[in-house]
Amino acid sequence: MNINGTYYHPTFLYESLWNLVGLIALLLLRPRKDFFKRGELVAFYMIWYGIGRFWIEGLRTDSLYIGPLRVSQILSLILVVIGIGLVLWIRLKGKDLVPYYTDDRSRVVRNEDE
């Protein structure tokens, strides 16, 4: 993108396309049996978004720095680490969780007044 004789990356476009591809990927993977457990869809989006944001923030020219590091890239890495940690926690500690897409109503505790 040429602005006043200087070329810049259209980072908003990159970010929009990255998020759109991530949404499509997650929607395509969501119905696969035994692929995601409950809560993992959000965790995978956090990982996807964090990776894209880290890369895109490296292209920006108006970033806020703390020392030699960009604040947005640090936060993106933190988001990726939290997402990976959440997936690991769900897989290791949440073995009894029902996958999010199931319709097993027998596991739902009902109020006796209903």
Describe the structure concisely for a colleague:
By secondary structure, this protein is mainly α. The chain is built from 3 helices and 4 strands.
What brief labels describe this structure?
3 helices, 7% strand, mainly alpha, 114 residues, two-stranded antiparallel sheet
Give the arrangement of secondary structure elements.
Elements: E1 2-3, E2 6-7, H1 11-29, H2 40-57, E3 65-66, E4 69-70, H3 71-93
Structure description:
The structure is a single chain. With 114 residues, the chain is mostly helical. It is built from three helices and four strands; from the N terminus they run ββααββα. It has helices spanning 11-29, 40-57, 71-93; strands at residues 2-3, 6-7, 65-66, 69-70. The strands form two sheets. It has a two-stranded antiparallel sheet. Helix 1 packs antiparallel against helix 2 (40-57) and helix 2 (40-57) packs antiparallel against helix 3. The chain is elongated and about 60 Å long.
